[in-house]
Amino acid sequence: MTPRLKAVPLRRSGVKEKILHIDRLSKGFHTANGYVSVLDNVRFQAEGGELIAILGRSGCGKSTLLKIVGGFIPPGSGKVLLNGSPVRSPGPDRCVIFQEDALFPWLTVQENIAFGLRGQKQDKRSKAHQVERFLGLVGLSEFRDYLPRALSGGMKQRVALARVLILQPQVLLMDEPFASLDAQSREEMQNLLLSLWQELGHTILFVTHDVSEAVILADRILLMDKSPGRIREEIGLNLLRPRERESGALLDFSRRLHQALRD
Ligand SMILES: Nc1ncnc2c1ncn2[C@@H]1O[C@H](COP(=O)(O)OP(=O)(O)OP(=O)(O)O)[C@@H](O)[C@H]1O
Ligand SMILES: [Mg+2]
After folding, report:
1. Same domain, residue pair 71 and 187
2. In terms of domains, do 74 and 142 share one?
3. Peptide bond before residue 242 is cis, with ω within 30 degrees of 0
4. Are residues 65 and 111 in the same domain?
5. d(C-alpha 105, C-alpha 57), whole Å
6. Which of 109, 124, 192, 207 lies 20 to 30 Å from 176 when distance is taken between CA atoms?
7. Cross-strand partners of 29
8. Whose CA is nearest to atom 9 of ligand 1?
């Protein structure tokens, strides 16, 4: 056993409002081999604007947890409250980005980003202005007329990000969104996500099994155990931003988290 990772205070001073309450969530599935408990008594809260990484080994229930918070599947027991109201179904206040997000292949980059605004009551000019802003924010203005098949994996994930951020969700749920990218594109996407987060101020739950990704991104890491999935520890990363990937403090956190995941 490694020594427990020491939790440190969060980087922000002052008390921020807790907007998301995950309260005693449990979930299991009936399978061919009988009932399997996947999540057991998972509880945590998120402040407005906080970036939380959910870190754990494959199969520990990270995606299941995110699907419950997204309202895609119901919990077995316990509840999710957003701004005090129970989450029972997907809603525009929570957007999800997956590992390989399917863009509409017949729509251009610009049209994909604009798609979510179709039902909204805004005039054409204001919609066009928004699309322009988000094309710029993800660095794809020059590629606006490209179809998805002409984009790299990283560019596709930028479109996926812009497409949900334009809806201005309060909470962004990200399930290993950069896992299929090469190392360099992955770093670029992490940096882009951090700059978008700092500009737009969403609350983000970011699922990953990559330690270095968790420590570069998160205000706080929830380290999960497996079988059944539980939160083993909450680790606050009171580190200045922008963070140096090779800094001693980050490498130290990474080393201890790697060890904790092996235990
Ligand atoms: N619909 C389902 N029916 C039966 N079992 C399920 C179902 N969904 C998930 N599971 C099981 O729950 C466990 C957790 O799955 P989940 O996808 O949440 O893990 P994860 O932490 O996201 O893993 P990974 O890192 O590989 O994505 C797994 O053992 C999986 O087989
Ligand atoms: Mg998963």
Report:
1. yes
2. no
3. yes
4. no
5. 33
6. 109
7. 36
8. 64
User: Which of residues 117, 149, 168 is at a domain's end?
Assistant: 168
- 29 alpha carbon, closest ligand: 1
Ligand 1 site, CB within 6 A: 29, 31, 38, 56, 58-64, 209
Per-residue model confidence as pLDDT tens for the chain (263 residues): 444 544 433 444 456 789 999 999 999 999 999 999 999 999 999 999 999 999 999 999 999 999 999 999 999 999 999 999 999 999 989 999 988 878 999 999 999 999 989 988 889 999 999 999 999 999 999 999 999 999 999 999 999 999 999 999 999 999 999 999 999 999 999 999 999 999 999 999 999 999 999 999 999 999 999 989 999 999 999 888 999 999 999 999 999 999 999 88
Residues 114 and 233 in one domain: no
C-alpha–C-alpha distance, residues 243 and 241, integer Å? 5
Q: What is the pTM of this model?
A: 0.93
Residue 14 corresponds to which tokens in the numbers above? 């002052």
> Based on the domain organization, do 174 and 157 belong to the same domain?
no
Last residue of a domain, one of 119, 139, 168: 168
User: Which of 62, 176, 210 to probe ligand 1 with, by most ligand atoms within 8 A of CB?
Assistant: 62
How many other CB atoms are found less than 10 A from the CB of residue 105?
A: 9
